[in-house]
Amino acid sequence: MRFTVAAVQAAPIYLNLPASLAKAETLIAQAAAQGAKLVVFPETWLPGYPAWLDSCRDVNRWDSPAVKQVYRRLAENSVVVPGPVTEALGAAARAHGVVLNMSVHERVEVGPGRGTLYNTMLLFGDDGTLLHMHRKLMPTYTERLIWGQGDGQSLQATATPLGRMGGLICWEHWMPPARQRLHESGEDVHIAAWPHVKEMNLVASRHYAFEGRCFVIAAGALMAVRDLPAELEPLLELQADPNALLLRGGSAIIGPDGTILAGPVFDEEIILTAEIDLTRIREEQMALDVTGHYARPDVFGPL
To answer: Which helix (H) or strand (E) holds 193?
Structure first.
């Protein structure tokens, strides 16, 4: 099976969910017009990755009014699943006949965990159905100030009209058991959602493709210093140039032998596309299959 995939490399309208959703709908339409059948967005694209956690002063201060205000705005602009935003995303996928992977800040609205935010990946079929959601297992370092931990039940590939798809978010790619769980579920295409795909993130994405014998769509976003929340003070070294990029994109599309098929592209908004051929997976499995002939469950079983 051959089809075109797209990594959307763009800046959302930070901390503005309605405006970011409108931009996403436009970008989905543009990707479809370029022939894409799978459209992938970067980590927490709705309503934007919280780079202020590492780029602003005093974000870890206890009882800080400014940080509380930013968190409130983030929560108010996060996505309830299911809800009006997932309905709109499903409608966009259906209207343009694409499988859509969107990463969001998710807000639990009712029941246990009410008020908790999660870093969540949503997969929609080309009929608009929400097929799968995955919450990031372990927020990384400063991210633990704002996100809860996922429960791991979502570590599996999902059948779509374009093959079996799975995904991990950012540093989950350095969690060996998480990788193996997804490999064993039989991914054809893996979505690697990042804030931006800097050097080591590209290394992890290429390693995942080679190890899992699958195609990888590594998607990164853009963010300028001027996009940081107005309530917070940027670090001194960032204040001189409000147009400097904190997140630089770096999106890439990678084959099942680790070869880069498109990208990486930095410092510009782009819909990065490539045609992929799923029959390549079987060819590469001849030499390496970490769930089959290159596995040793008799050795690496439970301790």
So the answer is: strand 189-193
